[in-house]
């Protein structure tokens, strides 16, 4: 870890001078002041866009006033705290102009020019149109001001310096508004815009390099610190568009149920989008190339591991998920053919067995069922055995899970 810090420091010192000498900020003016005026239409549009971006997720502490900030955002480089977005003049956005707000979304700069940390997903928000930025600004200005002092970030050196952020931006960020693909239809372009900008889906559903920058695409990846695996969004053949729409908007289908951080996204954001917008997102995701096959064949678990896993499955799991692993949707998700369950990363299955799984409560899933935790019942070896069994039964083909792979997740934070 220390070696990485000093490597980054050398890189940013070499790059920072270039970065400051080569400003890449873009400015696009509002069409008119009326675009961010506090009209009913602007405020309603901005409220909808805030839902699409799930802004409340990072800018609201549990039990606190909405958008008043304070939520801790742990990263591999230290802890950040979501700032106050209410229009309080002293602690929020009360002194910010519409241009200041645009500069934050599009260029990753706070009022006054300070570089923002990319945990605020400006590398994605940069694709947001100026008109949508202005509507968001109008909405946030309409909120009741909340006097809540922002919590100082606790980042490790050298990541707590503007020099480091300047170097990071030089290598990993360039501003640019979303450009529609002329060869695609309106629905595809709308879906691409939502997924790639406000939805910032690749912030979770892609891998990250040693410096925390997201890879291009939506091929899946581990969510740092939270220790959940966000699966590839390249849709398997056989998924119908209406099934994908249902999963995004309700959190559950006969094929799958969302858990973990994605359950929060569905609960706070996707369930409130219009059917047209969720359908557009599904159109875009289904147009992505099919997911690639595993790089290497997976060796089947040995007979002893499967036998031990079967005994545990029959005792703890079969009553809900069935002897055939088909479950009983939406209450009990299927395990057979479950792509998340059979991913190369077993972490999601391990965490759900240890700590339980909880689907989001939505208008389309009003009384969600939850899976109870088994951390207090099963030892690490037993968790490994039952997860191994379900990952290699009913046509599933995934590798063996070991007790050593289970243990690190007994104490991970649940958020």
Furnish the topology, listing elements before pairings.
Blueprint: H1 2-21, H2 40-52, H3 55-58, E1 72-75, E2 78-81, H4 98-107, H5 122-125, H6 130-142, E3 154-155, H7 162-172, H8 186-196, E4 221-223, E5 228-230, H9 241-250, H10 261-268, H11 275-286, H12 303-316, H13 318-321, H14 347-355, E6 357-358, E7 370-371, H15 380-391, H16 403-406
Antiparallel strand pairs: 1-2, 2-3, 4-5, 6-7
Average the pLDDT over all residues and give the rounded result: 90
Helix/strand order: HHHEEHHHEHHEEHHHHHHEEHH
Strand residue percentage = under 5%
How many structural units, i.e. domains? Answer: 3
Count helical runs: 16
Outline the low-pLDDT stretches. Answer: none
Largest sheet: 3 strands, antiparallel
Q: How does the helix and strand content classify structurally?
A: mainly alpha
Global outline: globular
Strand order in space, largest sheet:
1-2-3
Distance from first to last alpha carbon: 24 Å
Give the beta-strand count. 7
- Percentage of residues assigned to helices: 25-40%
Query: What is the rounded Rg?
Result: 23 Å
């Amino acid at each position: 870890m220390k070696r990485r810090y000093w490597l980054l420091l050398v890189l940013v010192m070499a790059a920072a001078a270039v970065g400051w000498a080569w400003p890449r900020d873009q400015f696009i003016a509002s069409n008119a002041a009326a675009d961010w005026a506090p009209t009913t239409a602007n405020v309603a549009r901005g409220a909808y866009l805030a839902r699409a971006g799930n802004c409340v997720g990072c800018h609201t502490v549990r039990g606190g006033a909405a958008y008043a900030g304070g939520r801790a955002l742990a990263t591999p480089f230290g802890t950040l705290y979501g700032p106050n977005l209410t229009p309080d003049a002293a602690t929020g956005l009360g002194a910010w102009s519409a241009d200041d707000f645009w500069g934050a979304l599009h260029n990753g700069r706070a009022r006054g020019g300070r570089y923002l940390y990319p945990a605020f997903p400006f590398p994605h928000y940069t694709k947001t149109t100026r008109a949508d930025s202005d509507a968001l600004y109008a909405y946030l200005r309409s909120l009741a001001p909340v006097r809540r002092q922002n919590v100082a970030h606790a980042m490790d050196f050298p990541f707590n310096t503007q020099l480091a952020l300047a170097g990071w931006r030089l290598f990993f960020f360039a501003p640019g508004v979303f450009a529609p693909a002329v060869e695609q239809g309106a629905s595809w372009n709308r879906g691409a815009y939502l997924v790639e900008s406000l939805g910032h889906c690749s912030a979770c559903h892609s891998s990250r390099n040693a410096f925390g920058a997201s890879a291009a695409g939506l091929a899946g990846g581990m969510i740092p610190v939270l220790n959940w695996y966000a699966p590839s969004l390249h849709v398997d053949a056989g998924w119908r568009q209406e099934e994908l729409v249902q999963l995004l908007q309700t959190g559950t289908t006969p094929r799958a149920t969302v858990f973990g951080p994605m359950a929060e996204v569905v609960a706070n954001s996707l369930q409130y989008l219009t059917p047209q917008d969720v359908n557009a997102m599904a159109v875009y995701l289904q147009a992505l190339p099919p997911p690639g096959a595993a790089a290497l064949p997976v060796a089947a678990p040995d007979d002893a591991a499967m036998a031990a896993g079967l005994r545990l499955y029959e005792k703890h799991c079969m009553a809900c998920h069935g002897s055939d692993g088909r479950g009983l949707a939406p209450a009990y998700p299927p395990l057979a053919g479950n792509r998340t369950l059979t991913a190369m990363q077993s972490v999601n299955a391990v965490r759900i067995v240890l700590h339980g799984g909880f689907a989001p409560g939505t208008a389309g899933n009003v009384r969600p069922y939850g899976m109870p935790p088994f951390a207090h019942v099963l030892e690490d070896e037993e968790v490994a055995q039952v997860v191994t069994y379900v990952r290699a039964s009913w046509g599933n083909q995934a590798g063996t899970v070991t007790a050593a792979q289970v243990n690190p997740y007994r104490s991970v934070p649940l958020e």
